[in-house]
Design brief:
The protein has 10 helices and 11 strands. The protein is an alpha/beta fold. It is globular, with a radius of gyration of 22 Å.
Length: 298
C-alpha cells in the first residue's frame, strides 16, 4: 500500500527537526519560468561536458549539458530559463573506459551532431558560465564554440573552499547530499540541475547562497606566479606551498606555478627568493580575471 505523499512530507519534516536524523530529498529539476517584467536579474549558464578523454587538444566532446538560469544581486537563484542537452558522435569509437565512466555508448551517440548555432544562441545574454571543473570544461568549450572565449567563467569546485563551509569535500555528490538532496544522474544536464541546487544552498557560515560566494571569488583578479627553472629536489617544497606542475605540452612554460590573490604577491615572491632561488629574482607573473581564468589562451 502506498503512503500518502502528504504523510511522507510530514514525516520527513518531523525527522528533519531531530538532531539524530538527516533527510535527503530526491532532486527534481526545476521547471522553466518566465521572468516578470522589470525584474532585475542576471543570467548564468551551468555547463557540463563528457568527452572521449582528458586532452582538450585532440579528444572530443560526446555530450554537452547546460542549464540557463537567472539570479538576483544577492546570489539567490530566481529560476531556470531553459535547458540544453545533446550528444555528439566522435570520429572514433568510444573506449570501454570512457563508457564505464560516463555511461555513454557508441549506439547512444550514433548519428548525433552538435548544432553550433544552437549552442551559441543558448548562451546569448548570459554573463557568466559555471562548471564544476572549469579548468577542464572551459578548454573543451572554447575549442568547439568561440563564444565561450568572451564569457566570464567561474569554477564551483575550486572557487569555493567547501570544507571550510562544513562539507566533506568538493565532489558534486558530496555537495548535493550536504544541500539535502540525492539524484541519479544519467545525463550531463542532470549534473547541471544538481549544481544549481548546490549553488542555491544557503551556507551556514555566511547566511547567503553558495552562488554569492562563488561570484565574489570569480570577480577578484588573481595572479599566476611561475617558478621556472627550479631545482628538481625543491619540488616537494613547491608542492607544499600549493604549486602545480605544467608539463609544457599546452604551450605554456614547463614549470611550477601557483595562483594567488593580489595581496599575497609580495609574500610569494619573497618565498621564491629566499626558499627556492636563494637570490633576487623577478618571476613571471600573469594577471587573471574571470574572462581569462581556466582558458587555454592563458
Amino acid at each position: 500500500m502506498f503512503q500518502d505523499t502528504t504523510d511522507l512530507a510530514a514525516m520527513a519534516e518531523a525527522l528533519a527537526r531531530s538532531p539524530d536524523y538527516r533527510i535527503l530529498r530526491r532532486l527534481i529539476a526545476r521547471p522553466t519560468y518566465v521572468p516578470a517584467a522589470g525584474q532585475e536579474v542576471r543570467t548564468g549558464i551551468l555547463l557540463d561536458t563528457e568527452t572521449t578523454g582528458l586532452d582538450h587538444t585532440k579528444d572530443e566532446i560526446i555530450e554537452l549539458g547546460m542549464v540557463k538560469f537567472d539570479y538576483a544581486a544577492d546570489g539567490r537563484i530566481v529560476g531556470v530559463r531553459d535547458t540544453f542537452s545533446a550528444f555528439n558522435e566522435p570520429s572514433a569509437p568510444i573506449s570501454p573506459e570512457v563508457t564505464a565512466l560516463t555511461g555513454i555508448t557508441d549506439e547512444m551517440v550514433a548519428g548525433h551532431r552538435m548544432d553550433d548555432a544552437a549552442v551559441t544562441a543558448f548562451v546569448d545574454g548570459s554573463v557568466i558560465t559555471i562548471a564544476h571543473n572549469s579548468a577542464f570544461d572551459r578548454k573543451f568549450a572554447e575549442r568547439y564554440w568561440p563564444v565561450f572565449e568572451h564569457k566570464a567563467w567561474g569554477c564551483s569546485a575550486t572557487e569555493i573552499d567547501w570544507r571550510a563551509h562544513g562539507f566533506a569535500g568538493a565532489q558534486l555528490g558530496y555537495l548535493l547530499n550536504g544541500a539535502g538532496f540525492f539524484h541519479q544522474a544519467h545525463r550531463a544536464v542532470d549534473d547541471c540541475h544538481a549544481l544549481l541546487e548546490v549553488l542555491d544552498f544557503v551556507l551556514p557560515t555566511t547566511g547567503a547562497p553558495a552562488l554569492a560566494l562563488l561570484l565574489e571569488t570569480a570577480r577578484k583578479p588573481t595572479l599566476r606566479v611561475w617558478a621556472e627553472q627550479t631545482a628538481f629536489e625543491l619540488k616537494d617544497s613547491l608542492k607544499r606551498r600549493g604549486y602545480r606542475w605544467n608539463d609544457g605540452s599546452d604551450g605554456r612554460p614547463k614549470s611550477w606555478f601557483r595562483d594567488v590573490d593580489e595581496t599575497a604577491l609580495d609574500d610569494e615572491i619573497a618565498f621564491l627568493r629566499t626558499q627556492i632561488y636563494m637570490q633576487d629574482v623577478e618571476p613571471t607573473v600573469q594577471r587573471l580575471t574571470a574572462f581569462t581564468r581556466f582558458s587555454e589562451r592563458i
